[in-house]
């Protein structure tokens, strides 16, 4: 048995899993200004075929791999633009390839393309994902937490336990990764998404999972909040009280002495 003390990332993952009983590995994502920086990551894998970003993320969250990519590894500009590896140029913004696929008119497709939250193009040349607890990424920008709605609301409650803020998230539809890692990378804010058709078909995201992208610091805030909630009896799994029972006793336990 190793005597090495766990890292903060390992402690964070252990605590999240104890609080939420997640099925899917928490992944970390980091952008790199040079390909050489990305390729220097320990045990990095490089794709041998084209993929979507959804697939690359799932290699970390579902297979436990550490994977690095450039735009050349992605199947098209749509994936790359969201993480700042491809430009949001005129062709991208027109969205003509989505007409009569996801949208009825070119105007609708263009409106969706304009609505996507994307990392600005020009700074980064590569991206890598890895299980957060592995510690292989030197400075991950965001963590990716896949969870059921019941798990997710407890995570959100944890974020709101202190320094309350109202979260208002968007739903762009297809290319929902712009709602999660695109928005979180671009703004630094916790970002919730309903994974889209492509994430579920190509990335293997199950029907029941939602996705929260947030910084490691915000994940720590959520953990401390969830610990406090658990002491108050508000924890996951949320036990059904019974739809025909008088809730007074249950609510009395939570709000005893309150008016």
**Largest sheet data:** 6 strands, antiparallel
User: Order of SSEs, N→C?
Assistant: HEHHEHHHEEHHEHEHH
Give the low-confidence spans. none
How confident is the prediction overall: mean pLDDT? Answer: 96
Helix content, binned percent:
25-40%
- CA distance, first residue to last residue: 52 Å
Percentage of residues in DSSP E strands: 5-15%
How many strand segments? 6
Number of helical stretches of at least 4 residues: 11
User: What is the 3D form?
Assistant: globular
List the strand order in the largest sheet.
2-3-1-4-6-5
Mind telling me the C-alpha Rg?
20 Å
Structural class: alpha+beta
Offer a few descriptive terms.
259 residues; alpha+beta; 6-stranded antiparallel sheet; 11 helices; globular
Please summarize what this structure is.
By secondary structure, this protein is of the alpha+beta class. 37% of the residues lie in helices and 11% in strands.
Describe this structure as you would to a colleague.
- Pfam families: DUF169.
- InterPro entries: DUF169.
- It comes from Siccirubricoccus soli.
- With 259 residues, the chain is of the alpha+beta class.
- Helices cover 37% and strands 11% of the residues.
- The protein contains eleven helices and six strands.
- The chain has helices spanning 8-20, 35-39, 53-61, 77-82, 90-94, 106-115, 149-159, 181-187, 197-201, 216-231, 248-255; strands at 27-32, 67-69, 126-131, 142-147, 191-193, 210-214.
- It has a six-stranded antiparallel sheet.
- Helix 7 packs across helix 10.
- The chain is globular and about 60 Å long.
- It starts with 7 loop residues before the first helix and ends with a helix.
